[in-house]
From TrEMBL:
Broad EC category: hydrolase
Name this polypeptide is given: Angiotensin-converting enzyme
Family: Belongs to the peptidase M2 family.
Annotated source species: Anopheles gambiae
Cellular component annotations (GO), alphabetically ordered: extracellular space; plasma membrane
Cross-referenced PANTHER family: ANGIOTENSIN-CONVERTING ENZYME, ANGIOTENSIN-CONVERTING ENZYME-RELATED
Glycan attachment residues as annotated in the record: 148, 185
Amino acid sequence: MPDLAPTSHNLSSNEFKRLNRFGITCKGLFIPSVQQYVSDGDSANSSSRPVFPVQVLINGLAETIQWDWNVRRDSEKHIMASNIQWRSVWLMLLFASTIAAGPVKRRSTESEKAPSETEISQIVEWIEQRYQQTKAHQTLAAWEYGSNLTEFNLSKKTKAAADFAEVAKAVAEELQQFKTDQLTNATLKRRIKKLAKLGYAALPADQFKELLGAIASMESNYAKAKFCAYGDATKCDLSLDPELTEIFANHREPEELKYYWVQWYNATGAPVRESFQKYVELNRQAALRNNFSSGAAVWLNEYDDSTFEQQVDDVIEQIRPLYEQLHAYVRYKLRQKYGDKLVSPTGPIPMHLLGNLWAQTWDNIADFTTPFPEKKLLDVTDEMIRQGYTPIKMFQMGDDFFTSLNMTKLPQTFWDKSILEKPTDGRDLVCHASAWDFFAIDDVRIKQCTRVNMREFFVVHHELGHIQYYLQYQHQPVEFRGGANPGFHEAVGDVLSLSVSTPKHLKKVGLLKDYEEDEQVKINQFYRAGVTKLVFLPFAYTLDKYRWGVFRGDIKPREYNCKFWEMRSRYSGVEPPVVRTEQDFDPPAKYHVSADVEYLRYFVSYVIQFQFHRAACALAGEYVKGDPEKTLNNCDIYQSTAAGNQLKEMLALGSSKPWPDAMEVLTGERKMSADAILEYFDPLYQWLLEENKRLGAHVGWTDSQKCVSHPIDFMAA
Ligand SMILES: [Zn+2]
């Protein structure tokens, strides 16, 4: 969320850099394989080669095999030369554990018997250790590259990523052989299920390579897009970040914006249509091989709840009345600025006027749409500078927030190893804020070229939210060291930011003095949050609903483009600035589509963070339903151990339980619901109802006519 936490992944600038983080070879292979909540970043300087000491007991004889992965790859003659030999290691271990368990009746039939639950548990534990080591190694390599962008570090990072992918595949293949149905221990079952995910690696080698190649070509097409400046055909080195992003945020000339919009969508869409179709086809094959009906089912399976798709649809319905009011108001303001010719009074909003290439958030046009422009927006930057704030001080205050909740204090290694300020030794690095888990104990770090201002003050708290989550679940086995579902991690960071960004909190920590908060100032604040968080919801929803349709085969190749715009129009009330056809192909113009990254996680995060916030606020005694003095949008959970203890309990579960169990610990609820976010925005909703009536602004929109289906030859069949 750009406003409170600009580091979230839905921000397009910088996003594409993430593609390098784990190496294209492993991307999409094992979806939950990486735990850095990085707005991007990466890297790879592996300081040492991975060495796997394998304790193998054979006939009571202990023997240590140093498993050097590099040697393994280089020499087929080496003792552990292939995945097949992985199997023999498991079997040896199994054999050894049988011996360890007691006298063995050496009957030939025994060695063919399925392993017992205890044996399986021992095997899994052993696998976890090796898996964790490789993952830790990969993470370190990624960190080192992200901290120092050299070719050498890049090659180390890429290699570490490939090594991890290989190990993870071997682990998954091995564990898939176990029949888990009969296991009585539900946690063991879940551990195996998580480690046994093969993902795309279930495809035969040639198809697997083809699929990764298709995704890599879409990503690379996206990353390399370059443009000529508007009205200057000699200046042709403009790219998404920073130029186009900055132009969309700050320029207001419609013809210029339209020009860049068309350039961007043309360059990042149609050229990858063929790759996209290949990707869809192989994605489906992989899903079937993993016993799922489609790629949509694979993604939804991460949410562990058969009703989840319905919950998502319900949220969209719940927020629709508020969204329509906000849409009506913004469209009215745009008409005031640009006139009826450009902006229809009753149609969808031409999206190039909304301050963002994808119109996913509209906060960049808050300067001329804000309800009460004469009122100053809250900003404590000057006060921070006056008081001599430094990046370290900002992190110390974040740490203080968590310890005030009785949560875990940052370990010394965090301070020793993090990069909290931009290094001055001239190296290149990925500066975008990111939080990292190194899969050890107490090794967590942040990389952020922190600047002293209010926006980054909130980002610091958001990133520390990820760090706190890592610390709380670090005792869990490696496959449970993750958020309860893909939306949880981002949500936790934001729960803190929701408190920190209140005037109440800023006053408490001495950053806000003589601040007069009247109703108009409050509406301005809620408006800003609304055009950031609320308008994002239908956008995020569409991005995956569209892909679910494509993966399921409900949306056919001949209608790929117009179906996309039909959905953007239906759910967000926006449309392209020019007429598009099936010769265009616009969905890959969003990074996550080009890069095969699931997007629903951001939607989920934006919804559940308000549920978390409401529960924590109630525990802190800061929120009482119906009490005008204790509202959800003016709550600060600082210093509440009651809220902190409960939050801690939820975080400590990691992903060891289905997410409704985790959510229940903090909120008592087991479903995702828009109730809390609607309650938070209620003052804005009430104001919009009145204001739109006063202005005579039309509410709702007609269907867009901006995509025309002209089937083209190669699609016609
Ligand atoms: Zn984040």
